[in-house]
Amino acid sequence: MVQYTVSYVIYNVKKFAPFVVLLLAVGGFIDSLLVHQKIIAGEGSCGLQLDCERVIFSQYNHLFGISLSWWGMAFYGVLVLATLGYIAGLRWIKELIIWLVAIGFFFSLYFLYLQVIVLSALCLYCLISFLIVTVIGYIVFVFRGFK
User: Fold this and answer.
1) Within 13 A of 5's CA, how many CA atoms are on the CB side?
2) Cα–chain center distance at 93
3) What domains can you pick out in the chain, each with its CATH number?
4) Are 17 and 145 in contact (CB under 8 A)?
5) DSSP per-residue string spanning the chain
6) Per-residue pLDDT of the chain (147 residues; tens, 9 = 90+)
7) How many CB atoms lie within 10 A of CB 6?
8) How far apart are CA 45 and CA 55, in angstroms?
9) Is the dihedral of CA 107, 26, 79, 62 positive or negative?
């Protein structure tokens, strides 16, 4: 019978962490792309009982004159490329990933604050993005998935 220690299991699970981050970042990019398509179409409905339209077309939808959907695509796109670099063996890129995730998480917290407190409306796509960046943050900071 094979016995596994906790450290052995964690070590082997951590080997897959960059791939999980990669998949989540691709999902975040697609999520941001969907929001951008909604903006272009002028239709912000998400199909649920949430007020996506109010959030997507609010005055808070731009940062430095650029739509948050573009910022999201840029964030997740750079994270995808950085994670691919890490997987390919560029270990120095770990610092970039850590900073990206930290900045992305704090911006997501701020945008969640804007939705809940300022706008009193929630957007499904924004909540999905918040969930994605939170899980990535957990993998990077708590689980320490990048060695």
Assistant:
1) 3
2) 18
3) 21-142 (1.20.1440.130)
4) yes
5) -----HHHHHHHHHTTHHHHHHHHHHHHHHHHHHHHHHHHHT----SSSS-HHHHHTSGGGEETTEEHHHHHHHHHHHHHHHHHHHHTT-GGGHHHHHHHHHHHHHHHHHHHHIIIIII----HHHHHHHHHHHHHHIIIIIS----
6) 556 676 665 666 678 889 999 999 999 999 999 989 988 888 877 777 678 888 888 899 889 999 999 999 999 999 999 999 999 999 899 999 999 999 999 999 999 999 999 999 888 999 999 999 999 999 998 877 676
7) 7
8) 10
9) negative
From CA 80, how far away is CA 67, in angstroms rounded?
A: 20
Q: How many CB atoms lie within 10 A of CB 138?
A: 13
The dihedral over CA atoms of 67, 53, 130, 105, expressed in degrees to the nearest 10, equals: 30
Tokens at 43, concatenated:
């239709």
Which amino acid does the sequence have at 111? F
